[in-house]
Cobyrinate a,c-diamide synthase (Victivallis vadensis), 450 residues
Amino acid sequence: MKSEQSAFLIAGVNSGSGKTTATLGLLRALARRGLAVAPFKCGPDYIDPLFHRIAARRDSRNLDTFLMGCDGVRDSFRRNAAAADAAVAEGVMGLFDGSRPGSAAGSSAELAELLELPVLLTVNARGLSGSIAPLVRGFCDWNPRLRIAGVIANFTGSAHHCELLAESLRLAGLPPLLGALTYDEAVALPERHLGLATDAEADGLIERTADKVERELDLDRLLALTRRPVPAAPGAAPPVPARARLGIARDAAFQFYYADNLAMLEARGVELVPFSPLADSALPSGLGGLYFGGGFPELYAERLAANRAMLDAVREFAASGRPVWGECGGLLYLLEELTDFDGRCHALAGVLPGRAKMNRKLAALGYRELETRMPSCFGPAGTRLRGHEFHYSSAELPSGASPLFAARNLRGEAVPSAAGCAAGNVAGSYMHLHFASNPAVPDAFAEALK
């Protein structure tokens, strides 16, 4: 077991400060050095961790106190960082942006303080020179319990610009400038309606970003400033023999899964068996259930609808009485129809009643408190758990559909869009559930698969 490692949180002054670019470049640059890098993402985001996994060649874990609790966050971080040479957490929004004004809850600062991580502060330095000093001073003084170890300037214009920024920080006695990433369209991150694009060009973009990070950041100094003892990992549970097989939809259309959810199922003897609703003509054999995660089914709706063999296999599986769960994009696949952004209607699995259509504007976003309204693969009626909702589509369910959840937002208001529906053993919702919010849920899920 390692005694020391470099560990830090990359935070931003605000969204758009370039922290994701810096994170991806650092993950790949450190991996190039032969370091074992453990990536993490603050908050409920399910897209950035996909890029972290490509960059670090290792699964990224979400760290979220609302979904996991403080103990759950510590456990996940320590367990997954224990064997790493470097642990790199990407923040969310600005460093002190929490779920409500005046509170650190849900912020990058909350995670950095909870895990005692030094912070690397990214600053959009376009149009800044001496003003970087009072800006960084404010962030350093706002919470004295946090240590800002260094600054990364993004969107800089030249080597001279970098010198001005570095000297301004030095003269003010502030944390050092560890480098400045000049603006470069070749490493600009493309966007989609759910955030960053996730396509085959990602690896090439990350390689170019790592080249830039190696040229323009002082990696040796960064690693030295963030050295610390490796936190003790939780005791490993004894291995559980496989007792059930769960089919996991994994392809370009279905990609969003919390890594800790899957790990919790595996720890309970569930063998995860990937399959592709896009490319496969049959389901794997011996499955006790199906799990359709989130993703971009709307971008592949024509291909999903054309794969009639798979749709028939899913219908046959659902009719067998074994549990089928779809969340967000998975819900769309399980419904009867999906109308894409161009207004084209595609017939899909139809194992849940209703249809959905894509909208140009965001339909729902936020944390949700949930309580099941009927027995399900998550446990008896009244089971409580937490999740996150983020989607552009809207689902139209028949008036007689049975809602799966009673859902409320952080203000205690009912959220009908998160209620989902259930038809016997098949259930779906827009919710991205986190099983750490109730450890009885993965127990029940594993038991249902038997």
Remarks:
- DSSP finds 13 helices and 26 strands in the chain.
